[in-house]
Fold:
Amino acid sequence: MTETAPPLLPAPTAPPEPATSGRLLARAAFLTAVLTLAGALLGLLRDQAFAHVFGADTDTDAFLVAWTVPEVAATLLIEDGLAFVLVPAFSLALVARGRRPGPDPVRALVAATLPRLMLALAAGAAVLIAAAPAVVAVLAPGLPATDLAVDCTRLTATCVFSFGLTGYCSAALRGHGRFLAPASIYVAYNVGIIGLLLLLGRAWGVRAAAAGVALGGVLMVLVQLPALWRSWRQREAAVALPEPRASAHRAPRALRLALVAPVVVFALSRQTQVLIERFLAAPLPAGAISHLNYAQKVAQMPMVLSLMLCTVTFPVIARALAAGDTERARRRVESDLIVAGTIVLLGASVVVACAPEIIQVLFQRGAFTLHDTDATADVMRVYALGLLGQTLVGVLARSYFSEARPLWYPACAMLAGLAATAVAGALAVPVWGAPGIAAANALGITLTALALLWGSGRRRTALSVRWVGGQLARLVAAGLVATGACRWGASLAPSPLSALIIGSLIAAVAFTVTAGLLRVREFCLLFRPVTRKLWHAR
Structure:
């Protein structure tokens, strides 16, 4: 019996906000895609420059321990934690603004949250700078270049403050339907790192990259300030607002501790996977942490591209739920799952099939040797097995937290996956080394994704879990076919670059044809004219 998609019913309540109507939503998604891709490419250029100048040795391992700070800060303050709280909060405030007169709820939200957040961020950065030696000892016990790692950690600790402000600005702008400036933050960030790396890398060593992180964090804030200022001026020109009452300065309901706590636990648990990897890899031979880092950065490119649509649709879902339009939110989440799954599985097929060629083209020059290429490619293929899980967690987490109410289930699912990662990693490292760490990561995040998908059918939006699971299973089958076709095509090429190009093209064709034949909703539309013609010819 053929599974069918849930019926697409019209939204039962208010229509979409003007800022998120179909045409503007498509335009925002396109601009976000372009800038996200530009930031990702600059990230690759940053990693290429780092590998060319420093290779993979004890110094790079020391820097990558310090790199844990911006990785955790980005997840907690920009990508997941703060965004999961503030985007729904701004959505609720915007809906309330249109429903009742009086003090502006958006202005009250900013007044109640921004000053306290800045104080907390400044204190957190200061504590981290002072405690840098203890942080390094906990993250990587036995690391040879401890002093260098401490110096780099103190430089990167400044991003706790800058990333927090970046995340606040991004959430405010996205909540208002403005996506261009938030999408450009990683362009500015990587420009700062690359600039200092090239200017001071020879003189300062890996400390130049750490200083670049500090500079990049400042640039992330500055690139958003003009858009924030224009939004504020337009609002002031449009409406003469009365002064907020004293009660308006109280923290809004959406930002109470009961809501913030599960979001923080979820975000920290997700990023703790990286900490577990660094901890397990510290006793391995020199360069192991670097190989894991390069492999993860490249393997996650398809995931980054797959989640860029969700960055735009997250405020749409939050505002729909704030207005009580659960049907519109459900349809949006189901569509996001299929589109994101398509992108990440097609990308994963190329990563698995052409891993050595990708690493050779991107990194094998300067101090990065053939041994480093082989080691990184082996790890990257294993990492790719968890890309679908990573993507599903990203999409589903946004749908959970868009409801702006306390939800501990995502955090519990993430903690369970983290425990699986830690146990599997501890068992796998003595046998398989760095690839065992990557396998444990894939296992843990996949279990988390399955738990979140199962729970999504019992929520307010009530996703059709059976239908979504069937569509994703068909996409996985299409990805397996594309992987084999990509490897076959790459084997015919004379050089790594041509192998990558030919393999990618063949993978795209094989994936599209297979997904269409398996009747994946977005792909079977491509074959509908042919199917109809054959039907009438009978």
Remarks:
- The CA atoms of residues 128 and 135 lie 8 Å apart.
- The chain has a mean pLDDT of 81.
